[in-house]
Amino acid sequence: MIAMDADDQLRQRMAWALSQIVVITPNQIADIGYSEIYLNYYDIFVRNAFGNYFDILKEVVSKYSTF
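Predicted structure:
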């Protein structure tokens, strides 16, 4: 709904497209406990929608790396 009603509709659509490219799970996130993690992950795409793809990957790896 945000992508359809927000003032930055192009940014929201770009973030959604990026989230379809850099996929974290092939299944739906059904557990409510994991939804906050996914929203934080999605916010990376919103922040970097018009930025560099390398910056997106760098931020994803730095936040969600288990090393």
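Summary: The mean pLDDT is 80.
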